[in-house]
Structures are given as structure tokens and as C-alpha cells.
């Protein structure tokens, strides 16, 4: 296809504002998929995404559209991931297209995620077409949303297109706007090949499938190509496009978006943002801006049942095949046995992986406290990147510790602002900005990532009844008074419950954890002290009283079946418990004890 007849675009939206539904309508309106094959949320392939209503991996579709000017156009839609954890992936897919539809739910207005993604689009020099969705609903207020878009985002909303992705109203106008208002891509067909790697995933039959945007030159089936970040050379088996199923084409020219397969075994070897060129007479300079994405949140995953360790290894290996940004290494814990220390891009990423292991592989897990990466500066001048509190060196050898900070943007209706400020303050936040857009406030906070990784989203949602939206980006490291706090159960340290904490908060966190554990650990035949300690110093303590009687003692030997039932119940309960010395700790204690409220 010649460049003048190509338009590449993405859709920017906050979760639930209608991105997937709009994509469905565009696909349907252009008969890209036969009526028979059309199903809801065509682009959201993964189950877990459907259930949670979030798009995790970028998806793409090529649409053919005959415009009102009578010409045939190829429209390539890249559906970007909609979550903060995947900001880098979003930024790359934005570089692969020239324009964005900014979808705003006209009953809701602009949200934090809309902002983050639209700024990425602006950074990528996109032409942006505002689309106000859900006009079929009585609460739709287009004037208010237009005002917000202009006030908060600062882009012209006069050409916004009112649509209902549900009824199909306005969809033609959207297609026309894509053709008439978005620029055609540029590129030189005869230059050396430069294709940007936008995404990749593992397919059991085809190996790794690589989504690319050709910038210059031509990507041909049968060619030998080089991935510039690692120098790996592969023979291209297939080249094709998504409609949205895979369809082979002989080649992809400049401005085109499609896939290649090359018998690549691991997604690890195909990093988002990499430049692909030909082995011979290739480009000498890669495209700018490549950086391999790094995990920022770490936690231990252990099977509740130690016999399932091999199954867990298997599950993790399989998931890692398809996820270059998920890292893992074996870990042994005195308390939890064999497991893995895993790294994630963020909390959602962690949850998704943990969920998949439990659901798809049927393995019950104990998850240890999520930790960020601390920079531990030693007295001898060296620096350790600490991502497991269990590995904290002897504090007398430590000079100072730095922790990662984030810039958080929160949009919230006025009436909840006070609660949000308090929450951020409680989490050691420093307020950077507070502005108003209509009846909503936008606050910007500088926060320690550590205070956000555990339950910040949950807390934010609950104090604002779900009305706040939140986004963040990493800003850098800063020194603070941080210490490792241990929890001792029956005098034995439970390393899975060790956390790094600010010294000023250690007492209150320690007390809260001990109180929680006291409720969560069942009583035993003996008294159990539960303590929080820094170094050798106990800073909080609770005592779990001894159980007076055996659970079956009441059964007077006579009622055998009742006795057996009770014992069975105990046994089933035990499966979900971990033994620490002589003490059984239930699985949920590991998570609940860490929650702050
Ligand atoms: P996404 O998270 O941005 O992909 O949003 P979805 O496309 O999944 O839509 C979120 C919800 O809004 C779904 O329940 C849709 O059925 C609904 N929805 C999307 N567009 C419209 C619309 O134009 N009108 C109405 N009434 N509902 C819509
Ligand atoms: Mg969606």
C-alpha cells in the first residue's frame, strides 16, 4: 500500500470508557470480520483481561475502509495496554502510529489514566481526535467533557466526535476523521530496513510472534534479519497482518504494521522498542529510545504444598516464555521451603501472574511482602541493589539506604479530596500540586514507591468509593531513614514477613502486624509470643494465649463420625497453613498482616 493511503492510530482511554467497544464497532462497520465471526471485545484475547476488563498486551488490527472521497485506505489500529505498569510499552506503541483517538466517557469525564496516556500521545507528536463516547446514556454531558478536555489536557475539543460505541452512532464520522485528520506515515521504501518491535508474544505452534511497525525499507518473507539490541540474526518465516486473525503477506513496506515469525523460542530475545534490520546492508543506527523494561516490584512465590514445587517451576517457566518483563530465580526460605523470587513491572502485573498460576495451573501460593529495589550504600563505598529484605546486610556495615520515589497523579471528586490528601500524607507523600477542573481536584504527589506497592490502590478506591483515578511514574531514588523490620513468631523470625520500613513508622506498622497476626494465627496448645523487631530490639509485642482443650476433647470418644469430621476439617485447614517451628500460620496471614488500615 502506498503511504498516502495508510493511517496508523491508537485509542487512548481510561478503563471502561469504551475503548474495546469502539474498536469492535470500527471492525464491524468496515466488515473486517464476517458477521458470523464477530464477537464482543474482539481485541481483548486473554481470559484474564476479559474478566478484569483490562487490556494487557497491545493488540492490533488492520481495517480496510473506503472513504467518502472514494479512495480505499488501510487503517492500522494498535490497541495499547491501559495500565500504569506498562507505561514503557505504551510509549513504544505510541511511537508506532501517527495519531490517537482520545476516547472519553461523556458521562464521566477525564480520568488520571486518560491523562497519562494522552501525554504519551502528545510526546509522540500525535494528531489527536477527541471522541466523546456513550452519548446514548442520559447522563452524557458533552459540553462539560469538552470543557474538561480543554482545561485539563489543553487540547482543542471543538472537533470532538460524539459517538455511542454501543449503538454505532457516530462511528462513520470517526472513520472519516481518521482518514482526513490523521497524517499519513512517512518512510523511505528504498532505505535500509528499520522496523520497530512493538510487541511480542509466544505461540505454542509458531514460536514467538513479533509485532512490528516498518519505519523505512521493506520487510520480506525469507529475509535474514538482525535484532539490533542483541545482534541476534533470524530467518523470517512468515510476514503478515492482523485482520484481526493472522494473514500472510509477502512483505511489509514503510508505514505498515504487521507481524513476523522467525522460529524464535523466547520472548526474552524480542525486546519491545528494539530495531529490526536486514543482516546484510542493514541500518547502522537503531531507532532512538530503546530501553529494556526492568522489573520494579519483587516478591517471593511459594507453593502452599511443598510437593507442588516442580509444578510451580513449570508454570513459571511457561509464563516467562511469554513475558520478557517478568523475572524469576529460585529462592529458599527457612520458613516457606523452595519457591521463586519474582520481579514484576508493577502490582497489577504481579497480581495477573499470581492469578494465572493459581487458576491456570491450580497451585495454591504463599506470596511474600512485595518489595521495591533499595539502593543500600555500604560503608566501604559499594552499593547493593536489595530486592529482598531477607538479604539485608548487617546494618553496622551500611552507610545509608535510598528508596525509589514516584510522581503520582490522582483525580478525585471534591468531596473525597480530604481523604485522599490524608492517605497520601500517611504514606509519606509530599504534595507537589493541587488544581481544580470543574468539581474535581487533580493532586500530584511525590511518594515512596514502597508505600504504594502494597495496598495503595485498594485504599484509594475504598476512601473515594471508587471515584478516584490514579497514575504514576518512577522519578528516581532518594535517601531516607529506612530499616528492616522482622516478625518473630514463637521467638523464630519469619523471613517471609520481613519488610523494609521507614524508622518513624516502624512501631505503628509493627504493632499493626502483630495485632493482625494474633487474630490470624489459630491458638495452639502453648502460649505464642508474636513480636516485631529491628535488629535485636523488640518494638512491638502481642501474646496469643494457649488453647485450653483439644478440639476433639468434647466428643467423649463416643461419636466417632463427629470426631473424624472434626479431624478432617483440621487437616483440610492445615493444607492452607505453613509450619514455623512448632506454629502453624495460615496462608492468608502473609497477605493480611501486611495490609495497613
Ligand atoms: P474499555 O475498558 O475502555 O475497553 O471499555 P469497554 O469497551 O470494555 O466498555 C466498558 C463498558 O462500557 C462496557 O460494559 C461497555 O458495554 C460499555 N459501553 C461502551 N461504550 C458504550 C456506549 O457507547 N454506550 C453505553 N451505554 N455503554 C457503552
Ligand atoms: Mg478494553
UniProtKB/TrEMBL annotation:
Reactions accelerated catalytically: GTP + H2O = GDP + phosphate + H(+)
EC number per UniProt: 3.6.5.n1
Membrane-spanning parts: none
Record-listed GTP binding positions: 16-21, 133-136
GO terms, biological process: positive regulation of translation
CDD domains assigned to the protein according to its UniProt record, in alphabetical order: EF4_II (cd03699), EF4_III (cd16260), LepA (cd01890), lepA_C (cd03709)
GO molecular function, one term: guanosine tetraphosphate binding
Record carries keyword Cell membrane: yes
Domain called Tr-type G: residue spans: 4-186
Location relative to the cell: Cell membrane
PANTHER family: TRANSLATION FACTOR GUF1 HOMOLOG, CHLOROPLASTIC, TRANSLATION FACTOR GUF1-RELATED
Cited function: Required for accurate and efficient protein synthesis under certain stress conditions. May act as a fidelity factor of the translation reaction, by catalyzing a one-codon backward translocation of tRNAs on improperly translocated ribosomes. Back-translocation proceeds from a post-translocation (POST) complex to a pre-translocation (PRE) complex, thus giving elongation factor G a second chance to translocate the tRNAs correctly. Binds to ribosomes in a GTP-dependent manner.
Membership in a protein family: Belongs to the GTP-binding elongation factor family. LepA subfamily. Belongs to the TRAFAC class translation factor GTPase superfamily. Classic translation factor GTPase family. LepA subfamily.
Protein's name according to its UniProt entry: Elongation factor 4
Gene: lepA
